[in-house]
Amino acid sequence: MTANIQTIHLLLLEPSSNQAEVIINSLRNRGFAVRATQVLTTEELAQALEKGVSDLLLANLAHTSLPAKQAIEQIVTYGRDIPCIVMMESHDDKILTDAMGYGAVDGVSANNLQLLCLKVERELNSLQTRRKKTQAELALKATEKRCTLLLDNSQDAIAYVHDGMHVYANNAYLELFGFNDHDELMCVPALDMIARESQDEFRQYLKTMAATSDNQSFTFSGVKSDMSEFEAIMTLSTANYDEEVCTQLLIRPAADNAELEEKLKELSAQDTLTDLFNRNYLNEQLHLAIETANEKGDIFNVLYIEYDQYSKILSEYGIAGVDQITIDCAKWLSEQVPDEFKLARVGDHAFCFIMPNNSRIKAREMADKLCRSISQELFDVEGHTIKITFSIGICPIGEGSDDAAQILSDAHSACNRVESNGVKVFNKAIRDAGNEQDIKLLEKVQDAIDTGRVQLLFQPIVKLHGEEKAIYQVQLRLKDENGKVMDSSKVFPLAKAAGLGEKLDRWIIKQSLKSILVQKVANNTQLIINLSSVSLIDQTLVSFIEKAVAASQLPRSSIIFQIEESDAANHLKRVITLCGELRQKGYTLCLSGFGNNPEQRTLIEQLDVDFVKITENKAKDIPKNSEVEEEVIQLLDEIHARDKHSIIPMVEEAAMLAALWPMNVKYIQGFYLQRPSEKMDYDFSASGF
């Protein structure tokens, strides 16, 4: 039994720890030694993918914060071959068809553990077969490459003949018979290169070899292209070339004093202009990286670099000017890039190198550093001083990568997407999953984050009755490279799907604290910050918040963390724990979107929050619909009965305020008070309520 136990490294996209344990135990009972990692966020999945090779992903489709589609796309981005089986609440052909359409290999009902185990076993066998096939293909390519290299560099004249015609001949063979190129030789029958008196003997040896498969050697007279003859020894043997059964001809000079053929030199690995490695050498290194990635699970990153001023320099200074800048740029890069990265020149103004055993983050940091540093350098062309900038594309090499040319092409493609002086990471998942418009929008979002075109706005939340209190809702605004504000209704869902939700939330928290210090607002000012569903299930969120607040030296009461009702319902167990941790440390909490789903009204009993904000869908209809007004009054009664502060958003006009006044609402928010502003300068004492 022990010999049959198979160890599997499993990724579990399952929010319920109890259900995850049930699945693991079922697989262990089936005979698997399970090493499972529960991943609930893009960050956790990224850490698992960078840490080592996993065999299988089991994804619960009910976990919406990290959808199975996004997880599969992230796996593809990292170059991993990890099949995914989706788990559905109940079997549904449409859901399964959709899942298989975006990359899942199969699906099963979450409660059918026996079928799940069978499908896991099948996919693991298929994965093992694919890995063996990839290894065999890589080994075959390596063997063929070594054989070709040996043939090309052999001082012996070697050729392969099929049906009497040459299909391959090395350079020594061409020189021996006086031919200048392979195409010329391919038109000449092998028999024509043997003197008439030796042809019958040649035919006889061919027949003998076909019958016995033994090697045959004989002395013959060869005929060169200029019709001169020479004496040599030919050895015939059966061989395969390009998947065809052929006859190998090996020819050596017959006499000891015959002039030895000059040994062929390997093509130089050095670029003649820059003294860097050339493209052929880089291709060899790419093949080695692919082999290592598939055998050991290592991750490599290819950085493709072009300087942006190529066309301008070519038009103003010609080829000589381009060559000079290319040489100077190569020297500068040689000083910046470690020798073990094997910097190579791959085009007129393009360079490339491979970073081994590193994450995409480190590769991005390296690329950003090169872009910053090169922009500070001065170069000289014909007495004129110019500056250059880099466009850099990054492409990962991981398990499942098998095409060096495609990897280089993908890195080049990412480089081409840089408009000028910047870095792009090739993302196959995003490219395949979305249309061109979504891809461009997502790139604008990423660029806005990276270049600081993200801005916080603050909208006051005013106390309707009693003593005023300074509270602002924090909102995010992103601008494109032209300063135009991007549509948040399109930006944020796309950013979340691409795994940028956590990054945006953490940026907002740090910048909100910084804004309080920079704008020097009142000490009791509070900012309401919304937490996305991705951050809610991030196990490191509380630790990050504590470090950020400690660094700002502001009181914990400065921040009110807001959680959407729908997100709280989807991750209730985790949100209850999160609220408890935050409350214990002294933070204030707000539940927003309350009343949107009648089935979720019990959330205000289950969650220890201070503020409850009514859903905008109902708030905006209060002046227009008496039934909605009655429903909102009931919601307010439930909130106040539990001693929590109520907030009504979407107060857009005076009629809305008049309707709210008798309802005993605690706080209001909306354009009627003030639109979101860059400054926290609202005069709460002059509100007039």
UniProtKB/TrEMBL annotation:
Domain EAL intervals: 438-689
Q: Which intervals of the chain form a coiled coil?
A: 110-137
Which PROSITE patterns does the record associate with it? Answer: EAL (PS50883), GGDEF (PS50887)
Residue ranges annotated for the GGDEF domain, each copy included: 298-428
Q: Does the keyword Transmembrane helix apply?
A: no
Known SMART domains for this protein?
A: EAL, GGDEF
**Keywords noted in UniProt:** Coiled coil
Looking up Gene3D superfamilies in the UniProt record yields:
3.30.70.270, EAL domain, PAS domain
- What this protein is called in its record is EAL domain-containing protein
Organism classification, top ranks?
Bacteria, Pseudomonadati, Pseudomonadota, Gammaproteobacteria, Oceanospirillales
